[in-house]
Design a protein that fits this description.
mainly alpha, 15 helices, binds ligand LTSJ6FE6, binds adenine, Probable 2-(5''-triphosphoribosyl)-3'-dephosphocoenzyme-A synthase, CitG
């Protein structure tokens, strides 16, 4: 192998490794309301931090493959590339369920982070200052037409076979994670990543604040599913506002608020699985940009 090819190969592998690192960093952040962390299972009795570590490790080869797929497609990447990714994503879902004995830890991340890692592979030759924006643009290019293809004819399907996201589209017109991805992940591009870039303090402080920022601004289909109503999104926005009004993770008042919020999530069985996925994406960009 020539030195040039070898270096390219290493860059591709690095993109895959950073994906698993982002999954590990997300699950380490605590105290996270409604989510599994090393201290708490939150409202997820079927999983703990070890389930997440096992799940993340099982996805290494998927993310390496995704980065390689992207690097082969380059900047013209489009829906064909997404079709190829979905095929390997479905296999990765099966590997994840085998590794976790049937627990859904990273289904959302297989989809969202898979797209971003593939787009990162496609921008391997782009200048590092321009890269993040290019990744979002390519993700958008790749997802062209997905809303139409995934949501057409849903009403003719057996209602029992529909996923939470599909049900929420039929019931509330909400496009969920597919809508976010099709728009090029605006919650990450315009809100979470700029927010993370200007945070200070420990990595734990910065990531906790970024999570609560995301949770206050996104429509988390996992939260809606658990609450049984989309009105929960407005409630979450208010919780986020109050947390930051107390100074966030770096203040005693902010930490006390978070502690109480964790209790509320536990008592009501609420989860922030979708927001966790967007945090994972934000961490991935943070790693690419050397923000930690
Ligand atoms: C497009 C797919 C993601 C499938 O979508 P689907 O319609 O099956 O599901 P959705 O409900 O739309 O969402 C799927 C997961 O995406 C995450 N998510 C939701 N909202 C957001 C958001 N605003 N931003 C980012 N991410 C979001 C979320 O994942 C997290 O929650 C998961 C736990 O969920 P679940 O098991 O349903 O919930 P529990 O509370 O545990 O269940 P109960 O105990 O209540 O029963 C966890 O994985 C988090 O990561 C949503 O769950 C994609 O999978 C797809 O295309 N599927 C088709 C097959 C395929 O092609 N797969 C390969 C993709 S490359
Ligand atoms: N830490 C976490 N807890 C529960 N669901 C998640 N989905 C992604 N990360 C998660």
């Amino acid at each position: 192998m020539t030195a040039e090819l070898n270096e390219r190969q290493q860059q591709i592998e690095r993109l895959g490794q950073l994906a698993v690192q982002a999954l590990m960093m997300e699950v380490t952040v605590n105290p996270k309301p409604g989510l599994v962390d090393p201290v708490n299972q939150g409202p997820h009795p079927d999983m703990d931090v070890f389930t997440f570590i096992t799940s993340a490790m099982s996805l290494q080869s998927y993310f390496n493959q995704a980065a390689r797929l992207g690097s082969q497609a380059g900047l013209q990447a489009g829906p064909t590339l997404f079709g190829q990714l979905r095929a390997i994503g479905k296999k990765a879902e099966t590997s994840m369920f085998t590794a976790t004995h049937g627990v859904n830890t990273h289904k959302g991340a297989i989809f969202s982070l898979g797209i971003i890692v593939t787009a990162a592979g496609a921008t391997i030759d782009v200048d590092s200052n321009l890269r993040s924006n290019q990744i979002f643009d390519i993700a958008k290019q790749m997802l062209t037409g997905v809303l139409k293809s995934d949501f057409t004819n849903l009403s003719h399907r057996d209602p029992e076979s529909l996923t939470a996201g599909e049900r929420q589209f039929l019931k509330y017109g909400k496009t969920g994670i597919r809508g976010e991805a099709t728009a090029g992940f605006p919650t990450v591009r315009e809100l979470a990543l700029p927010f993370l870039r200007q945070t200070t303090g420990t990595t734990m402080d910065r990531l906790l604040d970024t999570l609560i920022k995301i949770a206050g601004e996104t429509s988390d289909s996992n939260l809606i599913k658990r609450a049984g109503t989309p009105a929960i999104t407005q409630w979450m926005k208010e919780q986020s506002r109050q947390y930051f009004a107390r100074g966030g993770s770096k203040t005693t008042a902010g930490q006390a608020f978070l502690h109480d919020l964790n209790q509320v999530f536990l008592e009501r069985g609420l989860s922030l699985g979708g927001s966790a996925d967007l945090l994972i994406l934000t961490i991935y960009f943070g790693l690419l940009e050397d923000l930690f």
